[in-house]
Amino acid sequence: MKIMRQNSKFIVFLGLFLFSGLIRLNAQEQEKPLPRYAVSIEPFYLYNGGLRLNIEKRLDPKKWIELNITGYWLPYSEIKDGYSSWADRGGWYTSNSDFNEFTKLNGFGLGGTYKYYFYSTCFLSAGASYTYYGVQYEDRIFSKYMEDGLPFYEYGLQNINQQFQKVTGNACIGAHSFFRHTYSMEFYGGIGYAHSFYDKDKRHFDETVFGFGHIGLYPMFGFKIGFNIR
Question: Distance (Å, rounded) from C-alpha 55 to C-alpha 67?
Answer without folding.
Answer: 5
